[in-house]
């Protein structure tokens, strides 16, 4: 297997294994989810008559929260992992579709907005994906891509930061690809400040909550925790989740 294929295989296994506990593991702080939902609605501006898609929706946790907050006409969760998708299907106010990027763009769908949150680094051919999305999106449609910069502000150990950067496309490249596929882009960089107890953050690291941590052994994670610990005297880890919000809309005809 090539390095890229091995990474993708490990990623799929990671999500299948974590499905049941995924929402508990990804808990930065109690105010993170409502903040994120508000940010998404600010950028996506979903209207009551609109139909939208949460692509790579995982368990549908954010899809449901946004559906309740913005009250659009419909919400479709798209997720390739069967176990994750089964959890999304239990949220009966949402629709769901088990599909990956390649099978999603083959669907005869029309929608007004597309959310691609913390997924883009998993796609092997992003340009084909955006080109496939283009005819599905209504003329006034919007895409909201949420991702992180290559240099993460999360309190990871050096090797984990390096692996994160290696798997994360640069923001310039992401915007160029969207533009090549026929979209205008606008980028906002927004920090969510985090203050977590060490025991909370280390539990997340030990559970390998991020797919980039999957390749590390238990011993490497423990060594990484010792490394992180040296940077934070006392009981707290004070860091930030720096996020990139990219809004893409159909290119204006001049
Ligand atoms: C970090 S999780 C994000 C889940 C959700 N968007 C959220 O923000 O809570 C990444 C998700 O992308 C999905 N995924 C991985 N590869 C994918 C692909 N090729 N097409 C669509 N989704 C994919 C995973 O199964 C997982 O549910």
Written overview of the protein:
This protein has a 7-stranded mixed β-sheet. The protein contains 11 helices and 7 strands. Helix 3 crosses helix 4 and helix 10 runs antiparallel to helix 11. The protein is globular. The chain is of the alpha/beta class. Helix 5 links the parallel strand 2 and strand 3. 42% of the residues lie in helices and 24% in strands. The model has no long low-confidence stretch (mean pLDDT 94). The chain has one domain: 3-Layer(aba) Sandwich (Rossmann fold). Bound molecules: S-adenosylmethionine (SAM). S-adenosylmethionine binds next to helix 4. S-adenosylmethionine (SAM) binds next to helix 4.
What percent of residues are in strands?
15-25%
Radius of gyration: 18 Å
Element order: H for helix, E for strand: HHHEHEHEHEHEHHEHHE
Distance between the termini: 46 Å
Helix content: 40-55%
- Give a list of the ligands: S-adenosylmethionine
Structural class: alpha/beta
Topology (elements, then pairings):
Elements: H1 3-18, H2 22-25, H3 32-44, E1 51-55, H4 61-70, E2 74-78, H5 82-89, E3 95-97, H6 101-104, E4 111-117, H7 126-133, E5 137-147, H8 158-167, H9 171-180, E6 183-197, H10 198-206, H11 218-231, E7 236-250
Parallel strand pairs: 1-2, 1-4, 2-3, 4-5
Antiparallel strand pairs: 5-7, 6-7
Helix pairs in contact: 3-4, 10-11
């Amino acid at each position: 297997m090539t390095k890229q294929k091995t990474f993708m295989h490990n990623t799929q296994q990671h999500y299948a294994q974590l499905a049941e506990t995924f929402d508990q593991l990804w808990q930065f702080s109690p105010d993170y989810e409502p903040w994120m939902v508000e940010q998404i609605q600010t950028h996506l501006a979903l209207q009551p008559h609109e139909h939208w898609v949460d692509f790579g929706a995982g368990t549908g946790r954010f899809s449901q929260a946004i559906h309740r907050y913005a009250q659009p006409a419909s919400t479709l969760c798209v997720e390739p992992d069967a176990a994750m998708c089964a959890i999304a299907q239990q949220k009966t106010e949402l629709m769901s579709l088990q599909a990956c990027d390649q099978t999603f763009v083959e669907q005869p769908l029309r929608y007004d907005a597309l959310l691609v949150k913390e997924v883009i680094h998993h796609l092997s051919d992003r340009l084909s994906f955006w080109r496939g999305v283009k005819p599905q999106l209504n003329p006034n449609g919007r895409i909201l891509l949420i991702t992180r910069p290559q240099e993460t502000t999360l309190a990871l150990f050096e090797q984990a930061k390096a692996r994160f950067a290696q798997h994360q496309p640069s923001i310039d490249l992401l915007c160029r690809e969207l533009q090549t596929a026929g979209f205008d882009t606008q980028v906002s960089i927004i920090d969510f400040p985090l203050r977590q107890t060490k025991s909370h953050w280390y539990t997340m690291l030990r559970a390998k909550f991020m797919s980039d941590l999957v390749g590390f052994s238990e011993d490497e994670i423990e060594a990484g925790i010792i490394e992180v610990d040296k940077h934070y005297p006392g009981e707290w880890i004070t860091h930030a989740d720096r996020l990139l919000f990219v809004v893409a809309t159909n290119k204006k005809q001049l």
